[in-house]
Design goal:
By secondary structure, the chain is of the alpha+beta class. The protein is about 35% helix and about 25% strand. The strands form 7 sheets. An 8-stranded mixed β-sheet has the order 11-15-16-23-20-19-17-18. Strands 1, 2, 3, 7 and 8 form a 5-stranded antiparallel β-sheet that branches. The relative contact order is 0.09.
Length: about 600
């Protein structure tokens, strides 16, 4: 069922109005500044400006003071509608506004908003009646970042001035406090502190190095996913990391995705040009094409732990969430039209099972990504094919009672998709898991099957991930658990802490017992005080500590400290191991 996004229109209008106040304050202080666009966003607004002088944090207070003055004056917002020619004349000295105006169809209404008598901006509105309505609002400039004009890195870099904006100081303070907590959980910070990953400038942006602890978590996830997929009838493949351009030309990626690919060679000079794979589908199709297929072979499910390469722009890079090389739990399923709904349902059930096991299910939202029929160049296929595919997906999602929002223009170039989204700690949403319906690519590759009546038909293809990108999943898990992973995923599950050197041999025997059962453990045999060892282990988020002293050695027992402030002494090692194995096997959160 389609779910409408609830928007607080009054708050949104207030933020949009404050964007104009922010812009007016900036040009009052910096008359040479050229304004571009300034929308309301989830926590306030921003305005992109072209100004040679950098707006540094030391200048924020002066801009805010000027905003205060404008608001205290009670200046009115007044709308005026003008012709395209008039608008171009008014903004003749601002190439950014002129570009926006020139793109508007001839005869279209062009709306301007005045703020007082000395400031006007190109804007559809709406706005509050006057700045008197903003006098209780709480706002604060919190950042200035670089932003390419219209998001295109070939264009000029502008300054984007960000403003928090809330209805009152209480709401603003609560939001700032929430952000402070978010920064503590930010995987880009915490993941480095915990020794999970790092990055190196001379290797490049979006190319993280997974350190032993982070690599262990990824390994655990991959084994879990591949085993679970095998139980559900998926057959594993292993395909090349690159291919000649010929393959991508058949699939359509060369025409529709080349800018996002790493191309090796030059078509004008080289006999053969290769590209690193941005997805696995055209490779896995070759396994289907390896022999003739009958309806009795379907559904046919291929999965692969795939390393992929995508040429993301430098401004998009963020820790493990958006990278240029990543590993994904990718799969492609070939089925008959009659099998489509049940197979789609099975793919979704697998994805939900993964989310629940990892503790991310409650954080997920669903997006039905559709084509934009007004932008045909982005897609292959006919309107009839797209209508058929999207109607099929809508029917399936409605039958499964999946609450979703629609994203027009966000489909893959070959078919609609269900994107399962997760927000990071700062509220930015990215796709973790995708399930797509594809009725376009099979005919391009000559993929067919012999049906019951002897006729040749093209299979429907479902593209899907079961856990998505492993690096992105790790990022969300770091933030979800603030680095304190569930026991089954913790890179180190138990640490043995002898109190003195006299207790070392007993500690070693306990370590051997843990390792015998496959429990990831270590022994801290350093000549340090026990309090220091405990604090360090606590900071490293180790789930369980075994503390052994003379009493434990004499009685053949252990004392434990759990991460959740659990303390117990006089325990038998056998009982503790059984408890650990139970917690690991059930993947307890």
């Amino acid at each position: 069922m389609e779910k409408k996004i609830e928007i607080d229109e009054k708050l949104n209008m207030m933020r949009h109005s404050l964007a104009h106040v922010l812009a007016k304050a900036i040009v009052s202080l910096y008359p040479e500044a050229k304004l571009t666009i300034g929308p309301a966003i989830e926590d306030g607004c921003y305005y992109d400006i072209d100004l040679a002088e950098p707006i540094t944090p030391e200048k924020f207070a002066a801009i805010e003071k000027k905003m205060d003055e404008i608001i205290r004056k009670g200046e009115e917002f007044k709308r005026e509608v003008v012709s395209k020619a008039r608008a171009l004349e008014m903004f003749k000295n601002n190439e950014y506004k002129k570009e926006l105006i020139e793109e508007l169809p001839q005869g279209e209404e062009i709306s301007l908003y005045y703020l007082g008598d000395d400031f006007v901006d190109l804007c559809r509105g709406p706005h509050v009646e006057s700045t008197r309505s903003l006098q209780n609002a709480a706002y604060k400039i919190h950042a200035v970042n670089g932003a390419y004009w219209r998001g295109n890195e070939k264009n000029k870099m502008l300054q984007r001035v960000y403003l928090y904006a809330f209805k009152d100081k209480k709401a603003l303070n609560a939001y700032v406090a929430m952000l402070e907590e978010a920064r503590k959980r930010d995987h880009n910070k915490l993941g480095r502190e915990l020794g999970l990953f790092t990055t190196v400038d001379y290797i490049g942006q979006g190319l993280p190095i997974l350190l032993p602890k982070g690599a262990k978590i990824i390994q655990l996830l991959q084994r879990f996913v591949e085993d679970e997929e095998a139980k559900r009838g998926w057959q594993i493949t292993k395909t090349p990391f690159m291919a000649k351009s010929d393959l991508y030309k058949i699939s359509g990626h060369w025409d529709h995705y080349k800018e996002g690919m790493f191309v090796l060679g030059d078509e004008k000079k080289d006999k053969e040009v290769f590209a690193l794979r941005p997805m696995t589908c055209p490779f896995q199709y070759q396994a289907y094409l390896n022999k003739a297929r009958s309806y009795k072979d379907l559904p046919l499910r291929y999965n692969e732990t795939s390393t992929l390469f995508r040429n993301e722009s430098s401004g998009e890079m963020h820790g493990l969430i958006r990278v240029r090389q990543f590993t994904i739990s990718e799969g492609h399923l070939m089925c008959t039209p009659e099998q489509l709904e049940s197979e789609f349902k099975n793919c979704l059930e697998l994805a939900i099972y993964m989310l629940k096991t990892l503790g991310l299910y409650e954080d997920a939202s669903y997006r039905f990504s559709q084509w934009d029929e007004n932008d045909r160049a982005k897609y292959i296929g006919t309107k009839e094919q797209w209508d058929e595919a999207q109607n099929s997906m809508k029917k399936i999602l409605d039958h499964l009672d999946i609450p979703y929002v629609v994203g027009v223009g966000e489909a893959a170039f070959y078919g609609p998709k269900l994107d399962i989204q997760i927000k990071n700690v700062f509220g930015k949403e990215d796709t973790l898991i995708t399930i797509q319906i594809d009725q376009m690519l099979a005919p391009l590759f000559g993929m067919d099957y012999t049906d019951k009546d002897g006729s040749k038909k093209s299979p429907v293809i479902i593209h899907r991930t079961s856990i998505g990108c492993y690096e992105r999943t790790l990022a969300y898990l770091i933030e979800k658990y603030a680095g304190a992973f569930p026991l089954w995923l913790a890179p180190e599950q138990v640490r043995v802490l002898p109190i003195t050197d006299r207790n070392l041999e007993y500690g070693k025997s306990l370590l051997n017992e843990l390792e015998k059962y496959g429990i990831r453990a270590s022994l801290d045999d350093r000549n340090e005080k026990i309090g220091y060892k405990i604090r360090e282990a606590h900071n490293e988020k180790i789930p369980y500590l075994i503390i052994v002293g003379d009493e434990e050695g004499a009685n053949g027992t252990i004392s434990i400290r759990g991460r959740g402030n659990e303390n117990a002494s006089g325990l038998k090692m056998k009982d503790f191991v059984e408890r650990l194995l139970e917690e690991i096997s059930t993947k307890k959160i």
